[in-house]
What we know:
The protein is an alpha/beta fold. The protein is 27% helix and 22% strand.
Amino acid sequence: MADSDAAPGLARITVSPRALQENWLFFRAQAEGAVCAAVVKADAYGIGLGIAAPALVEAGCTDFFVAHRHEALAARALVPAEARVFLLNGVMPGEELALAQAGIVPVLNSVGQMERWQAAVPGAPCAVHVDTGMSRLGLTPEEALERAELIEALAPQLILSHLACASAPDHPKNAMQRAVFMETCARLPVVPLSLAASAGALMGPDYRFDMVRPGIGLYGGGPFDAVAVPLRPVVRLEAPVIQLRDVGPGDTIGYGSTREADRRRRLAVVALGYADGFLRAGSNRGFGVVRGTVMPVMGRVSMDLVILDATSARGLAEGDMVEFLGPAAPLDAQAQACDTIPYELLTGLSRRAARVVA
């Protein structure tokens, strides 16, 4: 067990380290010789860094990516000394020495960051980000080529970029970014290269280079918009039925009376709400599953409760657990129903819910 046993009346989040490991091993096999890293930012996409990092180390992972300094320090304490922890958001002024002493590898995203790193901690491990068309973090290709000598002096352990449209593998932006990346890096010092995250890692050898950096795929989220990938669910979100009630034609349901019963229906009130991480965007859209029966959300999701149409759920009783994420309620399907993405569902999981490792 992790934080607590599943207390009566609480939503329950069950995390499977084994499923996480199997998903990482799937990406490693797809990498065909490229290094397979793991993105563990945002508390390992909501499942818990303290659960994810040791499991990934056990599976064989040696390279980890996070977004913020505090995440990097937390990851550094959980992985072996020889493992690398890359800090995607780079280094803020004055942090250079502390990061180097902590064994963190910053991804340098600007000329200023490169200059400060070289002045403060010359020779300390770093990586360099080249922006190939996302207009987010990273040097422009022109900046990278203009400062090729500085990049050579830094001796980065990795030059990386990030695909903007990899979730749609046929999008022309992917090939364009790859071409820019190759053209730019061909004129820079020869160091390992990385372009692909979860989706890019599955787009064939042209996108893998020397390292792939899967994130959402490790946690069971399909990286493509329209192509299924055989990944195991890592998280199961369940919550108990705390009341059953009947409504008739014309009865309104939930805050704002946004739903009206069209006929006599059986409703299940479940102890799950947006305070537990089930998004309000799931109002009148999401679903729960019990013993194979899909029960649509009726009305608005409130802070602590969600109402489901249980008319077809025969034998449902108070105390029964309803699944909202897991094998019966796939992450991608729930995200689509809630008009969002798997990332938001996972990273929004609340610490109020009981957490179990199994």
